[in-house]
Amino acid sequence: MADDALFEFLHMEIVSHVYKEHATREDIDRERVTCVSTLEAMGFRVGQGLIERFTKDCPSFKDDLDVMKFLCKDFWSTVFKKQIDNLRTNHQGTYVLQDNKFSLLTQFSSGKQYLEEAPKYLAFSCGMIRGALSNLGLEGVVTAEVSIMPSCKFQVVIQKL
Amino acid sequence: MSRQSNRATDSKKMNSELFTLTYGALVTQLCKDYENDEEVNKQLDKMGYNIGVRLIEDFLARSSVGRCHDFRETADVIAKVAFKMYLGITPSVTNWSPAGDEFSLILESNPLVDFVELPDNHNNLVYSSLLCGVLRGALEMVQMAVDVRFAQDTLRGDNVTEIRMKFIKRIEENMPAGDE
């Protein structure tokens, strides 16, 4: 059973590595986009895998809102040690998940210091959410937004097929 | 200690899987980025080193071990405290060299390789190279230069996973090395 701290250390190092690598390969303009998409893709695979294991014995979900609630409570508690603090929706496929003390940002700052670095550390988590949703049957676009750390908002837009 | 409920054990298991899956995604990405396995091994080792130099502080803060007096004590602490705390396993310490400067850690199970199979075109990949780097980095921060390598690996057909650790020298007190 791996310790919680291990994931945080590994995540930090992965972000650092991806940015170092891409800085030496691509030109600076494209650096941001490529790094974030690499991290997001890694998170996607992990999210898919986690959900497979997690929902082995669960009954199927009634609707999208049920899936999102599962994500906010069970999935979030397992992965980030707490539940989502606030879930809002426009009932037309857009959901905003607010976490007031996001576990991957608590060590950064409790305010606006290092704000520009925060998105790097959210890409992986966005990917995880997208991967989790994908294996629960929902295609979505996930973005994250931070204004004051360690609080952040994940916006999920479900694509209707 | 609080009583472990079913939820808590499930939760711990999930975290273990989170780490394992993330590590797997990392190795896959590195295999895509680099042409040969040797490069991937090197990168994993480097990343492990960077993690190790930070992990040692977390370890020292959470365990209450004092300074080790010799290499044997170090080996015991690594196997019985550190591995137990971070990976939930207790490897055995064996195969001491006559000079007492080299030993093996035998892992019956390796959490990093749950769900993992090496494909045929990656025969030289030492999947768990990160561990070598972590051990090396952590010990360097407590003034010990060591050489760490995998002598046996279940992913490559061996029965157990064996990590061989060799003491090289004591490092003089100086500023910590930066990230490689």
TrEMBL record, chain B:
GO cellular component terms, A-Z: endoplasmic reticulum; Golgi apparatus; TRAPP complex
Record-linked Pfam families: TRAPP
InterPro entries: Bet3, NO_sig/Golgi_transp_ligand-bd, TRAPP_component
GO biological process, one term: Golgi vesicle transport
CDD domains, sorted: TRAPPC3_bet3
Keyword list, A-Z: Endoplasmic reticulum, ER-Golgi transport, Golgi apparatus, Lipoprotein, Palmitate, Transport
Tree of life domain: Eukaryota
Entry keyword Coiled coil: no
Coiled coil: none
UniProt-annotated location(s): Endoplasmic reticulum; Golgi apparatus, cis-Golgi network
Biological function: May play a role in vesicular transport from endoplasmic reticulum to Golgi.
PANTHER family in alphabetical order: TRAFFICKING PROTEIN PARTICLE COMPLEX SUBUNIT 3
Subunit structure: Homodimer.
Family label: Belongs to the TRAPP small subunits family. BET3 subfamily.
Identification of the protein by name: Trafficking protein particle complex subunit
Gene source species: Phoxinus phoxinus
Lineage: Eukaryota, Metazoa, Chordata, Craniata, Vertebrata
